[in-house]
Amino acid sequence: MANKLKLGIPKGSLQDATLDLFKRAGWEIYASGRSYFPTINDPEIECMLVRAQEMARYVETGALDAGLTGNDWILENNSDVERVTSLTYSKASRQKVKWVLAVPENSTFQKPEDLAGKVIATELVEYTKRYFAEKNIPVKVEFSWGATEVKPPMLCDAIVEVTETGSSLRANRLRIIETLMESETQLIANKASYTDEWKKKKIGNLSMMLNGAIAALSQVGLMLNVPKANLDAVLNVLPALSSPTVSHLRDSDWVAVNTILEEAVVREVIPRLKAAGGSGIVEYPLSKVVL
Amino acid sequence: MANKLKLGIPKGSLQDATLDLFKRAGWEIYASGRSYFPTINDPEIECMLVRAQEMARYVETGALDAGLTGNDWILENNSDVERVTSLTYSKASRQKVKWVLAVPENSTFQKPEDLAGKVIATELVEYTKRYFAEKNIPVKVEFSWGATEVKPPMLCDAIVEVTETGSSLRANRLRIIETLMESETQLIANKASYTDEWKKKKIGNLSMMLNGAIAALSQVGLMLNVPKANLDAVLNVLPALSSPTVSHLRDSDWVAVNTILEEAVVREVIPRLKAAGGSGIVEYPLSKVVL
Amino acid sequence: MANKLKLGIPKGSLQDATLDLFKRAGWEIYASGRSYFPTINDPEIECMLVRAQEMARYVETGALDAGLTGNDWILENNSDVERVTSLTYSKASRQKVKWVLAVPENSTFQKPEDLAGKVIATELVEYTKRYFAEKNIPVKVEFSWGATEVKPPMLCDAIVEVTETGSSLRANRLRIIETLMESETQLIANKASYTDEWKKKKIGNLSMMLNGAIAALSQVGLMLNVPKANLDAVLNVLPALSSPTVSHLRDSDWVAVNTILEEAVVREVIPRLKAAGGSGIVEYPLSKVVL
Amino acid sequence: MANKLKLGIPKGSLQDATLDLFKRAGWEIYASGRSYFPTINDPEIECMLVRAQEMARYVETGALDAGLTGNDWILENNSDVERVTSLTYSKASRQKVKWVLAVPENSTFQKPEDLAGKVIATELVEYTKRYFAEKNIPVKVEFSWGATEVKPPMLCDAIVEVTETGSSLRANRLRIIETLMESETQLIANKASYTDEWKKKKIGNLSMMLNGAIAALSQVGLMLNVPKANLDAVLNVLPALSSPTVSHLRDSDWVAVNTILEEAVVREVIPRLKAAGGSGIVEYPLSKVVL
Amino acid sequence: MANKLKLGIPKGSLQDATLDLFKRAGWEIYASGRSYFPTINDPEIECMLVRAQEMARYVETGALDAGLTGNDWILENNSDVERVTSLTYSKASRQKVKWVLAVPENSTFQKPEDLAGKVIATELVEYTKRYFAEKNIPVKVEFSWGATEVKPPMLCDAIVEVTETGSSLRANRLRIIETLMESETQLIANKASYTDEWKKKKIGNLSMMLNGAIAALSQVGLMLNVPKANLDAVLNVLPALSSPTVSHLRDSDWVAVNTILEEAVVREVIPRLKAAGGSGIVEYPLSKVVL
Amino acid sequence: MANKLKLGIPKGSLQDATLDLFKRAGWEIYASGRSYFPTINDPEIECMLVRAQEMARYVETGALDAGLTGNDWILENNSDVERVTSLTYSKASRQKVKWVLAVPENSTFQKPEDLAGKVIATELVEYTKRYFAEKNIPVKVEFSWGATEVKPPMLCDAIVEVTETGSSLRANRLRIIETLMESETQLIANKASYTDEWKKKKIGNLSMMLNGAIAALSQVGLMLNVPKANLDAVLNVLPALSSPTVSHLRDSDWVAVNTILEEAVVREVIPRLKAAGGSGIVEYPLSKVVL
Questions:
Q1: Are chains D and C touching, using the cut-off of 8 Å on CB pairs and a minimum of 3 such pairs?
Q2: Cross-chain residue pair F256–E248, CB shorter than 8 Å
Q3: pLDDT confidence of D93, banded at 50, 70, 90?
Q4: Does F55 share its domain with F126?
Q5: Can you give the CATH number for the domain in which A61 is found?
Q6: Which end of chain D is more exposed for a tag (fewer CB within 10 A), N or C?
Q7: Is residue E269 part of a domain?
Q8: B254 & B225 share domain
Q9: Cα F172 to Cα F150: distance, rounded to the nearest angstrom
């Protein structure tokens, strides 16, 4: 039988961003309507849509060879899996999310210990129980089906909730008193699958191409022509790590410089390149960057 | 302080149908954007949006005086609450839903006992555990975050899942081997609140008007004129329970008949009324029916 | 085997209006997604979605017992079917549509005879051929797949096209020189089916209820109280055909008048009823009117 | 030439609600795409869409015979027009709007006089200037093209702005220090047109039907059967102004009661009617109410 | 008079994809609302929207100089036109479509001959008639206005229908017993127009640019730096046809390689380039490729 | 305190195009919901959404350091501001807009002087008053709240209105008799701010990057390989201003040519490059062009 990699794609809020990332990395995944088994244009891969919350559980048992999920849910499931790479591509921002302990703004709670004997609502029940158990603080942890941040103080005393900027917590008049964990998306693999040479290489290629596509999102190409006399001045403007390619032109007084830059610095760099004697400066988009 | 009833409205799939029902019953609830505390045009009521899954838990503790949720989630939470009335108004159909035990079409499982030692995925973990424990069948029950029906056989052996028509189960090539429970929406009350006279009356009025609005959905008014000579023939056509109102007209050879009918029978009844001598037959819509 | 009526529902532009009409008449038809065999809440009927253009063909062969389609397509197919009733319920207007012969505004064509030897594009090829053959005018009739009105003069000389108001023809700078046919929706039946007593009665009930629902669209109920002294004046205001019901009240100086009116005249009638001494005038909506 | 009433319909935020109101009152107005001259199903009326801000100006000059606009814009234009009736039908609420003087929350301004020498931004420039001139407070009033409430304190010192609930002002951290005017929609007429008998009667009918449609929005019909013995008890439950119609039934122990009620009280009245001995209580919707 | 090319653009399902293709090829076509004569930013071209089904007919008569349509409709119309180039750009896939003969899954028909005497429904009436006539199989071919695949066995015995993957046929429980034709989009020209030198060159440029834009859809640019020592290893990784450009760098130990690749192989090639010693690998998008 | 540039972004029809332009220039501006103070990914800039009509007023007073608005509104406000650069990026076309004097098609007005004593409606009241005052033509200029072009002749005699193609004026049967002004978007600065060195440099960088992003919209990159023998022929095909870069290849018989071209000429240039001996011609998109 041909080699086949069983790959879990996160269903839900991450799904569209994940399919988009795979497309830019070179794999088109078609998730048609209600099917949980999307097709992929690679005969060596078999996809299944699985909730991020359950992904690690099924990668651990080997039902899946590999999958994408957050560090938070790996820990919640306490799963023994191989962490292949971190992938920071979530839509809204490219920062890690945090799971925090939050209490009503006007409560007297200041630290985890103050919650002894209280009720804490969270989606992350097992991790939260272990956290408080390790600190020997007795609390009641209740599973919350959603809208956790509106519950205190009417329905519970405190919550453990995920947040990026804290704005939803503030809007609900909650105050953060502790950060329990930071989390980002991981490509994980089943430990047994990762000892299979073919699967390990396949997963490695996936990792390289996904990272190449992510890198291209924040980088651009820049080309310019430079009189030889100004070349050092121009190269000094470029960031140390950009390793520009300098090539000869038929007109031997000039050289062409081609380089890769973080998009975020381009608006500072171009005016300085021009001041340093560069001309014909052109920025062009990239699809993948593998340094 | 004025009397106030704390009322839980089910968040999620039932929400729009519930707000619509309340509107037809006489209460406008405005659920603006992301707020979980919708306003209501009744100063004696305070609303909160709560997941159906958690409603019974918070009505039991008294955080809410009353709420709407399914029988299934009352049982899952094993909550001790007052069941005031059943309300059958769910959007798609007006039938009860069923929680069933389903297995892969081509598996050998035929009855609950065959699942001894197997893994069952479900959203209704506690109820399912009690069900199998009572039958002394040892199974592993796993919480499922959704898409339960795509899991067998790859991710589990069987599932306990909710269904109306069974079509989603069939589409996933699953076979039902047992019905564990039927469920419909309930208006429930906190037991202590229900001993408070004001609250009990308020809940009773709510119940009467909600039921009046539900009844009006499937009933219509019918008016017709009938020559006195044909009145018995016409009345014989009307269903026994419709108790028509017969009133005198200025033209003393005729009477007017006004009645309430199930909408479902109108298409049969009108042709027969006409055949029996009725004329000027008019059907008109109703907003509430309290018999 | 139980009796069953095979009923064709027009697929396409009339479909939504037809389903809505059936719903108001008492039959709910669920056309889910791409299925051409919608379900209906009447075990005695079996529905199929069929293009209006082909309906008469399949009612004629008996593949369907009955169906709804336009007079135009019955004639185009030259089908031998029973015409049960006309049903004027199309969304935009409630007028008949016309099939007209149209030529470029600035052409010299003035009458059908002027088109001898010319090319005519139309969707209604067979009917158009017969029309010109009967007049002994030799023309070339070409089937048009759509956008017929943009074709003259570049792609053909004249067209036979359907129109309600003529505005699309004018916008394309075309001039009507002849009306070939008027058309409206018909409920048709297979001739053999129509000799079956059960089917004939079933089709008759359908016809009565569909017409009752159509009538209710343009009529309303009106109730008012009238001092006996003013009754004649009030009745004189009401249209001759409205046959109002006059009933006694407990207060014997007053009577109650209840009547059905065309909605279009209400805005004229109410001010005159009030001037004639009516009071407490109330208009209410109707769902069906079977006089 | 036939009589014709030139009627201005407010373009913009009130437009949809206005067309809907006219439809319920008995006039269908078709505002197709970009045309400012919608068609209406009444050959005696000619419509034009005109901004509410400019309506009174053009009714005053006689370019329009009548129109709908707010009291605020009549005063802003200082127009000499006939006010025929108030019409309270705006979508969000049915309350009057207010034009208020608002200042930054944390400013020291407490009353209009404190703004002497300051800059006030508003859409209602002329009215505001007259207001402050009458109080002999010298201010600079600047026309604001929109988003007035975000301007203080960066772009101006205070604003005169319209508000229903004040929530937008609060959200922009503004504090109301004075209410300058309350406003609601008016049907206005040109003074000369209003002396023309035909036009005055036509405008009067419009006014009656528009008010009849508005009244029907908040009222419902209620029918019930009552044993004669309980009639007084039942009638005592009904609000004083509802003037119920009581009619005889063939069964002489019973009477039928039919009445019109404010929808807002139905949820209180029905339980009390039932307690008083009413049965077969039915609520039905109304389209127009002209008492 | 200036030279002008009359060009037919396919109206309907291909339209958006066609306009998008022309835009990428360098021509912006604006199809505003209902007009069938879109504007184009090239004074030498005049566009008309024409149904793919009729395109060949009007190119053959010379009403159009050139146009885009499928091979299937050229054959259905039996048109004598110049086929300039094939263009495979349809949205869903980039494969040819097939017209197949399909019968009910559970019928006994196995080959075309089995349909002698039967009724076949299809949109491709003329081609189908010729096909069966050439095989001397007598069948009745009926024009189908759409939804052809739901007709057997109720409304006909077999169908000739277009399909890409066969999934719609399978969903309707039909079985393919013969492929009659494969089809893809063609740029066609009127034979007389194609002898005009100016028109032939204009059509040739169109063909080159359309093909250049199509090629760019599936290809990407790849740049990398390579130590001279590894150049052969790197070049061996690249597909034979990619003809990479190798250029000198100022640092004479390194060269820059720039090449065009099929996007489909990039995910395989990049890991191997890196293994062969390439670095700074960058993929960039292309707009046109003319080799 | 750190340096900070207060920048006005035009609210309304230009807003989306402006945010898109800034994004391509290197600045991401997030305008969340109803806030008028969008965030920007540059700690040195503070944004405010301001109507184009009011922008110049607030840049003149120094409430803003810089802003984008049309030349028309600078003149309407008669503001004394620094004009930094013109930016032509409006969505529909990239032409200047015109403010014109228009009269009813069938009126006798032929020149501005003919309007002496008449009423002119416009949004540009002050500029229009100055225009007619300078010509000593007495007119009444009325502010128009919108839909200006439907007003003549019913509500006014002539209008001064903005237009790109004149099509809206023609559709309202108006005739242009004079162009009063042409206008395009300007980056403007407060005169005092522009003497501050840091602010002037910051505004200069903004100007360079915005212009670089605009230039890239209409230009593309083109690469091709050329046998040395054909190089002159190839270079002759390229537009004089394109200044191509010619670089050596390892295969010394060939050179690589890389150049920037107006996208509009590519469809003409590529066929001629190919005819001149170029091969492997590739067009690629650009993000910024700073020559």
A1: yes
A2: no
A3: very low
A4: no
A5: 3.40.190.10
A6: N
A7: yes
A8: yes
A9: 6
Point out the least confidently predicted range of C127-136, D107-116, D202-211, F162-171.
F162-171
SS (H, E, C) B6-68: EEEEEECCCHHHHHHHHHHHCCCEECCCCCCCCEECCCCEEEEEEEHHHHHHHHHHCCCCEEE
- Choosing from F196, F216, F236, the residue where a domain stops is F216
User: In terms of Cα–Cα distance, which of D242, E191, E61, A100 is closest to C225?
Assistant: D242
C263 Cβ contact partners less than 8 Å away, ≥ 6 residues apart: C218, C219, C220, D26
Q: Does A127 reside within a domain? A: yes
Chains B and E touch (3+ CB pairs under 8 A): no
**Tokens 């108004």 belong to residue:** B89
Contact D21, D89 (CB under 8 A): yes
Same domain (yes/no): A111, A253: no
Look at residue D62 and give its three-state secondary structure.
coil
Provide the domain limits for residue C242: 219-285
Report the amino acid identity of residue B72. D
Task: Assess whether C82 and C48 both reside in one domain.
Answer: yes
Contact assessment for residue A116 and residue A184, using Cβ atoms and an 8 Å cutoff = no
Q: Tell me if C178 is assigned to some domain.
A: yes
Q: Which residue of D has its CA nearest to B288?
A: D283
- How many C-beta atoms lie closer than 10 Å to residue E81's C-beta? 23
Domain harbouring E273, CATH code: 3.30.70.120
Residue C264 with chain D: CB contacts under 8 Å? 26, 41
Which of E172, E199, E216 is the last residue before a domain boundary?
E216
E strand or H helix that includes residue A106: none
**Would you list the DSSP string of C27-47?**
--EE--TT-SS-EES-TTEEE
> How far apart, in whole angstroms, are the C-alpha atoms of residue F201 and residue B268?
84
* Strand positions, DSSP E, chain B: 5-11, 29-30, 39-40, 45-51, 66-70, 82-87, 97-104, 119-122, 140-143, 158-163, 174-183, 185-189, 219-227, 245-248, 254-262, 279-285, 288-290
Dihedral through CA E96, CA E102, CA E105, CA E108, nearest 10? -140
- Chains adjacent to A (≥3 CB pairs closer than 8 angstroms): B, E, F
Q: Rounded distance, CA E118 to CA E108, Å?
A: 13
| Same domain, yes or no: E67 and E31 | yes
Q: At F166, list the tokens.
A: 């004149």
Residues A16 and A145 in one domain: no
Check C279 against D285: CB less than 8 A apart: no
| Cα distance between residue E53 and residue E65, in whole Å | 17
Same domain? D151 vs D228: no
Measure CA E248 to chain center: 40
Q: Are residues D108 and D176 in the same domain?
A: yes
CA B264 to chain C, closest CA, distance in angstroms equals 7
Structural domains of chain B, count = 3
Angle at which helix B197-217 crosses helix B15-25, to 10 degrees, equals: 100
Four-residue CA torsion sign, E113, E119, E122, E124: positive
Contacts of C288 in chain B (CB under 8 A): 266, 270, 281-283
Question: What sections of A122-254 are H helices per DSSP?
Answer: 125-134, 167-171, 197-217, 231-237
Asked if residue D72 is part of any domain, the answer here is: yes
Q: Phi first, then psi: what are they for C131, rounded to 5°?
A: -60, -50
Task: Give me the tens of pLDDT residue by residue for chain B, a chain 291 residues long.
Answer: 468 999 999 998 889 999 999 999 999 999 877 788 999 999 999 999 999 999 999 999 999 999 999 999 999 999 999 999 999 875 444 578 899 999 999 999 999 999 999 999 999 999 999 999 999 999 999 999 988 999 999 999 999 999 988 888 998 999 999 999 999 999 999 999 999 999 999 999 999 999 999 999 999 999 999 999 999 999 999 986 667 899 888 888 999 999 999 999 999 999 999 999 999 999 999 999 998
- Which of D9, C133, A93, E13 lies closest to F28 in space, CA to CA? A93
